[in-house]
Amino acid sequence: MIAVQEEGQNGLVFVRHLRENQIGLPAIILAAAYEPEVFRSAVADRAEYLVMAGAPDAWYPVLVQLVENILAVRRVQDKVLFLEKKLNLVGSVTRHDVLNQLTAVSGYTELLEMVVTDPQMKSYIEKERFALEKIRRQFQFAKDYQILGTEQPVWQPLSSVIRRAGDLVTVKGITVTDNCGTAAVLADIGLEKAVAQMLDNVVRHGKTATELRISAREEGEGGLVIFEDNGAGIPDADKERIFERGFGKYTGWGLFLVHEMLSLTGMTIVETGVPGKGARFEIHVPPESYRKEGKPKVT
């Protein structure tokens, strides 16, 4: 699709409308002259940008080459999509069958616990149940990680994401305060699971945490989303390691998954809290992925 950006024909508005409606149609913005703001907007909306400078003989061959490149990329994307579907099918069937057997083993374990009276044997059964739960969580991680980046990023109001994430995690005893107002981010559709992992992280590791505050504000040309609790905090030696795969007391994949999911749209996350006073996670959002659509409010 080719959209013209000149007086009376605002191609940027049309392309943005497509993206907001999750339409990933390839687009080329044609402009009579180079304008930095138009160029940045075109890049943000995943469109190519071409200046029609000089006679048609000068820029038309470039346009033809650009179209051919887009078509070549589209063919490769279609092939990759086909292979991804095959892999997803195999992964889905395998997880389904294994989890069914895991449910059966868990059921027999509970029955065994009902008839066993020896304290030492009961301790073995408890360890077995812990191992089964860890396997279940590992399969859930595999499912979440497999679907990362399979869909185009979409604009999501942070308050809505936090609300949906809260339905996925039990945060009993912790008050969650949303100060994000109407801020929105361009992120993977699984963003709510990343936020759910952040909530779960407070429950599991916050220890004395009773409050979690989530806020968003403009930072430079981009945005800054902050998760801050009043729990035990994170030791200085672990501040970078917590985002590594396998680090932690449980599966060790929670914050690793958050890091990976955010990176899909250029976001970064760091921990800047003071040990003993609470954890503070700062998510830096690039300019093209952040919108402050109104004044913040406390909910």
From TrEMBL:
It holds the Pfam family HATPase_c. The keyword Transferase applies. Keywords: ATP-binding, Kinase, Nucleotide-binding, Transferase. Its EC number is 2.7.13.3. PROSITE patterns: HIS_KIN. It catalyses: ATP + protein L-histidine = ADP + protein N-phospho-L-histidine. It comes from the Archaea. GO terms for molecular function: ATP binding; protein histidine kinase activity. Residues 93-289 form the Histidine kinase domain. It is an enzyme of class 2 (transferase). InterPro entries: 2C_sensor_his_kinase (IPR050980), HATPase_C_sf (IPR036890), HATPase_dom (IPR003594), His_kinase_dom (IPR005467). This is histidine kinase. It comes from Methanoregula boonei (strain DSM 21154 / JCM 14090 / 6A8).
